[in-house]
């Protein structure tokens, strides 16, 4: 018998050209003063921001811009954004950008009604959030984090080198505008890193202790789609039809993992990201093979068979080895350089990274129990 609990209160609009409807959608939501939350460069250099502001001029809406979101955003950026919202009486947040911009946008929206700093609400303290925030429209420019459909916002504390998430139903966007056009200008390396993040979300959702009959087909379809199309996108960055496939897969993997949680790869990728300051998808990839080797040992034949088929492994004979090989091949095609030592991490950092892992939500949903010793061993293998 199966039990599951599924809740995702986001209206999702998916399709090429929908980003130009963001002003109209803002108006339909009753907005009078909006804050666009984005990164420093991308939206400006592509001309998307200028075009968007131009379209907003057709509506009785005041537009403010907050373009202070760096990659791997520190928590105080959220506090700064929330101050602007309060002083300007903003009534809708429009987040456009990669996972960092969207994570900050939704955290700002909820922080508006919370005392203290947003860092008071990370990890186990997310359950202290008792007030809904203001509405949000989120539009991703990467196909990876799926922040636009999840209840997660990941932030960094630079002083303590912690990278932790806020997880709460109030973080769900009001509306997700998911437009493959916005991902067209994503550079080659970032296309690979964010696509791998989506691939690993699918993998970890499928393996999570909370995986169920609703999320499993979504995770497997996403896994199969990304495995097939991410290398093609990587070699044909201008192909919007291929971008659409990976973005679709990222969306459904997000719908799956926001219900199931993730696992050991994300539990380690977060502290690794905080130490090495490398893109999240890359941090995930570096640790994937050793975590999966550990997890594969306890999986049922059904799980291994389904995972194998998604990656083109059609028989159970040496399926585990061949699954690992298929994933290693994907990393190789995408020119991923493995090895923690290549990214400034020192052997003596490994115990500290291992100690951080249990603070993440993902640690608890790994299919096989993790301990400090196990995690340290995995880190040594990934070194
Ligand atoms: Fe991720």
Structural summary, described in words:
By secondary structure, the protein is an alpha/beta fold. It has 2 domains: 11-183, Rossmann fold; 188-382, Dehydroquinate synthase-like - alpha domain (Dehydroquinate synthase-like, alpha domain). The chain has 15 helices and 8 strands. A 6-stranded parallel beta sheet has the order 1-8-5-4-2-3, with helices on both faces. The protein has a two-stranded antiparallel ribbon with strand order 6-7. Strand 4 (92-97), helix 5 (99-111) and strand 5 form a beta-alpha-beta unit. Helix 4 (75-88) packs across helix 5. The N and C termini lie far apart (41 Å). The model has no long low-confidence stretch (mean pLDDT 96). Bound molecules: fe (ii) ion. Fe (ii) ion is lined by residues 145, 197, 201, 266, 280, 284. Fe (ii) ion binds next to helix 7 and helix 11.
Quick tags:
Rossmann fold, 383 residues, single chain, alpha/beta, binds fe (ii) ion, 6-stranded parallel β-sheet, two-stranded antiparallel sheet, Dehydroquinate synthase-like, alpha domain
For the record, what CATH class of the largest domain applies?
Mainly Alpha
Helix content estimate? 40-55%
List how many beta strands DSSP finds: 8
CA(first)-CA(last) distance: 41 Å
Low-confidence stretches: none
- What is the H level of CATH, i.e. the homologous superfamily of the largest domain? Dehydroquinate synthase-like - alpha domain
Overall radius of gyration: 20 Å
**SSE class:** alpha/beta
The run of helices and strands is EHEHHEHEHEEEEHHHHHHHHHH
Instruction: Kindly estimate the percentage of residues that lie in beta strands according to DSSP.
Output: 5-15%
Largest sheet: 6 strands, parallel
Q: What strand order characterises the main sheet?
A: 1-8-5-4-2-3
User: Shape, please?
Assistant: globular
CATH topology of the largest domain: Dehydroquinate synthase-like, alpha domain
| Overall tally of structural domains | 2
Ligands in the model, by name, code or SMILES, are: fe (ii) ion
How many H/I helical runs? 15
Domain Fe-containing alcohol dehydrogenase-like C-terminal: 191-383
Domain Alcohol dehydrogenase iron-type/glycerol dehydrogenase GldA: 9-180
Protein name: Iron-containing alcohol dehydrogenase
Cofactor: Fe cation
């Amino acid at each position: 018998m199966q039990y599951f609990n599924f809740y995702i209160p986001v209206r999702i609009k998916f399709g090429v050209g929908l980003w130009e409807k963001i002003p109209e959608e803002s108006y339909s939501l009753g907005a009078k003063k909006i804050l666009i939350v984005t990164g420093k460069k991308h939206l400006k250099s592509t001309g998307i921001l200028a075009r968007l502001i131009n379209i907003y001029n057709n509506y009785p809406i005041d537009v403010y811009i907050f373009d202070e979101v760096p990659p791997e955003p520190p928590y105080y950026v959220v506090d700064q954004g929330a101050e602007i919202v309060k002083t300007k009486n903003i009534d809708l947040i429009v987040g456009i950008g990669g996972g960092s911009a969207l994570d900050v946008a939704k955290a700002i929206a909820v922080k508006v009604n919370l005392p203290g700093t947003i860092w008071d609400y990370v990890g186990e303290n997310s359950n202290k959030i008792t007030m809904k925030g203001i509405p949000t429209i989120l539009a991703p420019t990467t196909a990876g984090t799926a922040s636009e459909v999840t209840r997660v916002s990941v932030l960094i504390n630079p002083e303590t080198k912690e990278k932790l998430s806020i997880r709460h139903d109030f973080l769900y966007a009001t509306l997700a505008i998911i437009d493959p056009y916005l991902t067209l200008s994503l550079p080659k390396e970032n296309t690979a890193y964010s696509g791998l993040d989506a691939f690993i979300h699918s993998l970890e959702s499928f393996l999570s202790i909370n995986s169920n009959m609703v999320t499993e087909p979504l995770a497997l379809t996403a896994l199969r789609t990304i495995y097939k199309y991410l290398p093609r996108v990587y070699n044909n960055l201008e192909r919007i039809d291929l971008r659409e496939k990976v973005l679709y897969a990222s969306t459904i993997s997000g719908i799956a993992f926001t219900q199931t949680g993730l696992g050991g790869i994300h539990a380690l990728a977060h502290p690794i990201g905080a130490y090495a300051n490398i893109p999240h998808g890359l941090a995930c990839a570096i640790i994937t093979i050793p975590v999966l080797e550990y997890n594969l040992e306890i999986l049922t034949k059904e799980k291994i068979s389904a995972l194998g088929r998604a990656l083109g492994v059609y028989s159970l004979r040496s399926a585990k080895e061949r699954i690992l090989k298929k994933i290693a091949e994907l990393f190789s095609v995408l020119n991923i350089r493995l090895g923690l030592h290549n990214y400034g991490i020192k052997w003596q950092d490994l115990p500290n990274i291992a100690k951080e892992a249990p603070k993440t939500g993902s640690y608890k949903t790994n299919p096989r129990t993790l301990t400090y010793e196990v995690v340290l061993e995995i880190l040594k293998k990934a070194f």
